[in-house]
Write a structure and sequence with these properties.
single chain, alpha/beta, Rossmann fold, six-stranded mixed beta sheet, about 35% helix, binds pyridoxal-5'-phosphate, binds zinc ion
């Protein structure tokens, strides 16, 4: 049994780890789960694969585990961009994003606490994941989406898994606020957003897997939206440091899109708090967030790891998405490609040396957002089947352009 405390980021209130607790019982603020490093923990004793391989470091009591074999994603070494670069391809999770790592823990928690209904606000991936895990658990899911702002693949997943879809006029931030208010007023619905710190206990396993694959890299680059994941990954490394398995944590580098960069702006300007953005906008819909609920946690992870933040434009994101596909054969959605755009910028700015071992977290699969993939340029030629040979020979010899 993993022990420790839950500590409020707003008022400092501390209480022993309790699975019923999601927000601060005193002020409603966000809580950090700080585990006591288990004395008998040993890597060689771990069994199985995926998130639950690390159950010795995941607090909570689980009467049943709702799993679809999430985690255990490949860490792919770059073949053509930089030999010191690695891609943690979270797009290969069961629903196509890292959200599944958090969802297996949070939905197992909901079921263990006898909840019959779950809810999540989402830019799309949390919804798809919540819908799938709720379906597997045999419970009802409600998802709250910003109408017209969810990538087609993600929306279609939520439909297929049978979630009840509530669409709001307004941004993700409006949807998120509605879910937080609902949870505070009506405790019969279990919330699956990342203000729920139990979700991050699943997501921290990204760090454990990276460490088991290549040890501790110099840098980990993470696209930042609601800002839970960058903290979760830092938390994972930090726990390994406290246990004594590693002797340093990587620099955590957050990347935000120009039209939705409150945290990156604050870090770059050296401010302690972000200025929130009312109408966030970017092609990277997964990080199209103006009021990141976990901003305190993200800024802590960046500062304590001596990391930084980078802002990238939409055109840099789409260019990086294409480069990743065409140089490495890896299809990631725009938010994930922001990590590569940020890597290129970090090298240009001298923030990262190209000889430093660096891991990019590719948070979601390209199939999530077919419309963004189809924006890439390529030749499409309407052919008479009888002329295919001539056209191909012409292409190979460069006659057609
Ligand atoms: C959720 C998500 C993010 C952002 O993660 P946060 O924890 O909200 O910062 C980035 N990319 C993809 C594909 C996502 O689904
Ligand atoms: Zn508090």
């Amino acid at each position: 049994m993993v022990t420790g405390v839950m500590k409020c980021l707003s008022c400092g209130y501390e209480t022993p780890i309790d699975q019923h607790t999601i927000l601060c019982p005193k002020c409603g603020g966000l809580l950090e789960i700080i585990i006591e490093p288990p004395k008998d923990f040993s890597l060689s004793k771990l069994k199985g694969r995926g998130v639950w391989r690390y159950k010795d470091l995941i607090p909570g009591y689980y009467k049943s585990i709702i799993s679809i074999n999430e985690g255990n994603t490949p860490l792919i070494k770059s073949a053509n961009i930089n030999k010191q670069l690695y891609f943690k391809f979270e797009g290969l999770n069961p629903t196509g994003s890292f959200k599944d790592r958090g969802m297996t823990v949070a939905v197992s928690s909901a079921v263990s606490l006898n909840y019959k209904t779950v809810i999540a606000a989402s830019t799309g991936n949390t919804a798809a994941s919540a819908a799938a895990y709720a379906a597997r658990a045999g419970i009802k899911s409600f998802i709250v989406l910003p109408k017209g702002k969810v990538a087609l693949g993600k929306l279609a997943q939520s439909v297929l898994y049978g979630a009840i879809i509530l669409e709001v006029d307004g941004s993700f931030d409006v949807a998120m606020e509605a879910v937080m208010r609902l949870y505070r007023d009506l405790k019969i619905v279990y919330p699956l957003n990342s203000f729920n710190p139990w979700r991050l206990e699943g997501q921290k396993t990204i760090a454990f897997e990276i460490m088991e694959d290549i040890g501790v890299p110099e840098n980990v680059i993470v696209p930042v939206g609601n800002a839970g994941n960058i903290y979760a990954i830092w938390k994972g490394f930090n726990e390994l440091l406290k246990i004594g398995i590693i002797d340093k944590v990587p620099r955590m580098i957050g990347v935000q899109a120009e039209g939705a960069s409150p945290i990156a702006n604050a870090i770059i300007k050296g401010k302690n708090e972000p200025d929130f953005i009312e109408n966030p906008d970017t092609v990277a819909t997964a990080i199209r967030i103006g009021r990141p609920v976990n901003w305190q946690k993200a800024m802590k992870a960046i500062k304590e790891s001596k990391g930084t933040a980078i802002v990238v434009s939409d055109s840099e994101i789409l260019e990086a998405q294409k480069t990743l596909a065409r140089k490495e054969g890896i299809g990631a959605e725009p938010a994930s490609a922001a990590a590569l755009a940020g890597y290129f910028k970090a090298i240009n700015y001298g923030i990262i040396d190209k000889d430093e071992k660096t891991v990019l977290i590719l948070t979601g699969h390209s199939l999530k957002d077919p419309e963004s993939m189809a924006k890439a340029d390529t030749k499409r030629i309407l052919v008479n089947p009888l002329h295919i040979e001539k056209i191909i020979v012409g292409e190979i010899n460069g006659f057609n352009s």
